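ok trying this again, last paste got cut off
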Amino acid sequence: MTTTAMKRFHIALAVASLDESIGDYSSRLGQPPTAVVPGKYAMWRTDLLNFSINQMPEKAGMLRHVGFEDDDVTAYSSSKDVNGLD
């Protein structure tokens, strides 16, 4: 039996308050974060999504970046999608 590599959508947002955002997104995603760096960062990982937040009050609500993760890729890569986004 062969296994298929998981591909996940990745999205990262800037937030005003890490603690408040952890509570909100944990409720929305139905699970606690997979990783937390207190006062700085949190990440939720599901089969389809890698969602991360960074405490950056001056940029709260802004999209930091989007991408895709592929378990078969062994190094960082970047390519543009059909809309010209890296």
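PB: full thing came through this time. The mean pLDDT is 88.
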